[in-house]
């Protein structure tokens, strides 16, 4: 059973929210699951533009609202707003030593590597639409990645792998399988600052669902 790690925040002070988040990160082990059961933090990630911004910072490193806007084809005012929302909930942070005047540089904050969305039953009924939107945005990203796969495979099959299969498992075995998959992913993944020479950022997805349902 997935542990419940985050308490519901009631403070409207963004500095307290960020402090709470970072305190939890410091106290956690890197492989420990972090449950995103705070609706406000979940809502911050339930937006396509913010997901794209996080992706850019993850893959390409620090950037300004201007450079991100150029990459994503968005106005600077739009990217600045979404950057502030991501900062408010601790997903990114400013780089003070690189910022000057109105130009602010941003990087991905040190967050747990195993971030997990809650099950619907772990949220209050009024908060469940936020979870639905979070998943909808994620599934749209997944569809776009799936469409890119054939071309990536033709370009270099050593860097594009896929697998299909059917297995029979109990619910308990399936839970163990999923935890083992996450552990394996963490074992072979590196944070950007710790990656060895030759390491590339990889999009990795795993889906599993019952085969005996329509």
Structure, explained:
This is Helix-turn-helix domain-containing protein. The protein has 7 helices and 5 strands. The protein has helices spanning about 15-25, 40-45, 50-60, 65-70, 75-90, 130-155, 170-190, and strands at about 35, 65, 90-95, 105-110, 115. A 3-stranded antiparallel β-sheet has the order 2-4-3. A two-stranded parallel sheet has the order 1-5.
Ordered list of secondary-structure elements with their pairings:
Layout (H helix, E strand, L loop, with lengths): L13 H14 L6 E2 L3 H6 L3 H13 L2 E2 H8 L3 H13 L3 E3 L10 E4 L6 E2 L11 H28 L15 H18 L26
Parallel strand pairs: 1-5
Antiparallel strand pairs: 2-4, 3-4
Helix pairs in contact: 4-5
Radius of gyration: 19 Å
CA distance, first residue to last residue = 26 Å
Major β-sheet annotation = 3 strands, antiparallel
Q: What gross morphology would you assign? A: globular
Tell me the fraction of residues in β-strands, as a range.
5-15%
User: Secondary-structure element order, as H and E?
Assistant: HEHHEHHEEEHH
CATH H-level homologous superfamily name of the domain at 14-160: Winged helix-like DNA-binding domain superfamily/Winged helix DNA-binding domain
For the structure shown, list the relevant keywords.
214 residues; Arc Repressor Mutant, subunit A; two-stranded parallel ribbon; DNA-binding transcription factor activity; WH_DNA-bd_sf; DNA binding
Concise overview:
This protein has 214 residues and is mainly alpha-helical. It is 47% helix and 6% strand.
């Amino acid at each position: 059973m997935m542990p419940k790690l985050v308490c519901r925040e009631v403070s409207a002070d963004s500095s307290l929210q960020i402090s709470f988040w970072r305190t939890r990160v410091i106290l956690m082990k890197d492989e420990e699951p972090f449950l995103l059961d705070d609706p406000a933090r979940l809502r911050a990630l339930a937006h396509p533009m913010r997901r794209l911004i996080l992706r850019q910072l993850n893959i390409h490193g620090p950037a300004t609202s201007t450079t991100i806007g150029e990459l994503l084809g968005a106005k600077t005012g739009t990217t600045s707003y979404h950057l502030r929302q991501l900062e408010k909930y601790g997903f990114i942070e400013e780089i003070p030593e690189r910022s000057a005047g109105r130009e602010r540089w941003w990087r991905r904050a040190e967050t747990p590597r195993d971030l997990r969305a809650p099950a619907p039953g772990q949220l209050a009924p009024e908060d469940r639409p936020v979870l639905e939107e979070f998943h909808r945005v994620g599934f749209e990203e997944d569809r776009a990645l799936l469409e890119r796969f054939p071309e990536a495979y033709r370009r270099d099959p050593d860097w594009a792998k896929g697998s299909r299969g059917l297995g029979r498992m109990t619910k308990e075995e399936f839970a163990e399988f999923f935890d083992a998959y996450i552990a394996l992913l963490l074992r072979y993944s590196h944070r950007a600052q710790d990656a060895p020479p030759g390491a590339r950022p990889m999009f990795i997805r795993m889906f599993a669902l019952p085969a005996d349902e329509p």
